Amino acid sequence: MDFTLSPELEDIRVRTRAFVDEHVIPLESDPKNYDDHENLRLDLVRMLNTKAKDAGLWAPQVPKEWGGMGLPITGWAVMYEEANRSIFGPLAFNCSAPDDGNMNLIARTGTDQQKEKWLKPIVDGKVRSAFAMTEPHPGGGSDPGMMKTMAEKKGDKWVIRGRKWFITGAGHAEHFILIARTSDDPRRGLTAFLYHRDQPNWHIVRRIGIMGPEEHGGHCEISYDGLEVPEENILLGVGDGLRCTQIRLGPARLTHTMRWLGLSKRCMEIAQDYVGYREGFGIKLADRESVQIKLGQVAHQVQIGRLLVMHAAWKLDQGDRARKEVSMAKVSVADTLHNAADIAIQLNGARGYSKDTILEWIYRYARAARLVDGASEVHNMVLARFMKQEGLDFWSWSAGNRV
Description:
- By secondary structure, the chain is of the alpha+beta class.
- It has 3 domains: 7-123, Orthogonal Bundle (Butyryl-Coa Dehydrogenase, subunit A, domain 1); 129-241, Butyryl-CoA Dehydrogenase, subunit A, domain 2, CATH 2.40.110; 248-395, Up-down Bundle (Butyryl-CoA Dehydrogenase, subunit A, domain 3).
- Helix content is 48%, strand content 15%.
- It is built from 12 helices and 10 strands.
- It has helices spanning 7-28, 42-54, 73-83, 89-93, 99-109, 112-123, 241-277, 289-317, 323-348, 350-353, 359-367, 376-390; strands spanning 129-132, 150-154, 157-168, 175-181, 190-196, 202-207, 219-230, 234-235, 279-280, 283-284.
- Strands 1-4-5-8 form a 4-stranded mixed β-sheet. A 4-stranded antiparallel β-sheet has the order 2-3-7-6, with no helix packed on it. Strands 9-10 form a two-stranded antiparallel ribbon.
- Helix 1 (7-28) runs parallel beside helix 3, helix 3 (73-83) packs parallel to helix 7 (241-277) and helix 7 runs parallel beside helix 9.
- The longest helix is centred in the middle third of the chain and has 37 residues, at 241-277.
- The radius of gyration is 21 Å and the shape is globular.
- The two termini are 20 Å apart.
């Protein structure tokens, strides 16, 4: 496990950092650049997209034949961390959630016809997408086996009825991946369907208000009232929905952590800059031992997170499902992001709590990190189960659990 970057990846890392510094971070400081939900205005997103394409920094997770950079997952880790030093960075490079995970899933499981119709427009930046899985109680959340949304075969189509909520990006999405129940089989009872925004018999009930800030399209509650999907718009096959969720969510959870590491580092950049010149009681804050301890603690937490993320990415690149490694990274980096934002605000004082910096934005965003794509408690339960099953082999260095 040599994590030394190849010359190609080092070049991508350096160019991504330079792009973010030159084109993206400057947009954060002007409130006029934000939309009503505290994200970047869409016209500015499109402007950044054009520049990123021209720079050859576009859709790193997508195979080259479909318009992306074709990077390995370890390459994603390198680029995403640099991209998300800005709160708007992933949008610039087309590697933000939920499109990021949806593109990876369709690229890995779709037919050529499905990729042409459903994947390529997302890669090209012409449409946004959403992944509709989570349901209100008593439906499925972290446990997909509880799913209540039903798809019934009628003739050559599947008719879908049910309800989803907290579906990220649904308000702006045109392409949707929907997970619905097609049988009571515990392993093969779910199926993944593709549908377009313009299809009838479904609607957005509401855009759910959150602590914010929000992704474009918000977090929506959706009702399905007889949505019809033809057989050719099923990913993999009938009964393969659980497999589709596993293929999508493993890497998607890890890409969250890659981006969160970038935000954690940005918090430390802002904190270090401020304590470097702010004085109190005759001494710079940076020279106080208590401040140095806080910064040092976050520094080592970030590096632990980077190693966990890169190890999980490496195992995924070997064909391993890396369930333990992804869960470890998810729990660790979610905590690190929250702690980095909290300490940076503390060291900046009232300035950090104000909107004069982006720290309060990151702090509110960070609270969701311990919930999205599986709450930290669920991931810790997964780790405990593996440890019980494997004993001392839990800490094995070998690559197992292949997909």
